[in-house]
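Researcher: Please translate sequence to structure tokens.
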Amino acid sequence: MPRVLVVEDDAQLVRALRINLQARAYEVEEAFDGGTALRIAATHKPDAVLLDLGLPDMDGVEVIEAIRVWSQVPILVLSARHLSEDKVRALDAGADDYVTKPFSMDELLARLRAATRRRQAAAETEAPTVVTTDGFTVDLVAKKVQREGRAVRLTPTEWHLLEMLVTSPGRLVSQRALLREVWGPTYSENTNYLRVYMAQLRRKLEADPAHPRYLITEAGMGYRFEP
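Model: Translation complete:
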């Protein structure tokens, strides 16, 4: 049963979406703000996200950007914003489709089916979920790390950080995106958290933690995984 995460602060619309989705054999999870949406997306791994842009705690575009750091789950924006610049921002951030309110439920469901079909087709051609370097190996499915043939024990927080970095090889992942995804939106300025946990990861994975080869700091911006 495919799982859909509905991120919307209008309780009546959430109810209507839930009824229609469940009637078509979707499992539905609900979030009324961005922070809750990011936590559910990270822990429950939905098959699709229906996302309103006008959330009480953060802009929906920020939710898209945070999810796109680590996931390619289909994201369909549901918004009352009709301006083309709003649509461009959402699509550039990584949304798969943009549906303006009010909308036809049949059309929305058709777009949802199309987005999930595209994602399924892409998943079938994706690279293996094992990241290998000269220093260590990360199995993203089994959630295991090995270094020099031995298992490396990571805390859940360390694993979450490592997963976000290795799934975006060569790409800068901002401090804000890491903090929001791992600790939640209220921690987006607590960069000391990142320094502590990145230091722990380097001690476990790098041959010379003081001069890292794989987990690179981009001063004042974020971190980058170099395979």
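Researcher: Any highlights?
Model: The longest helix spans residues 105-123.
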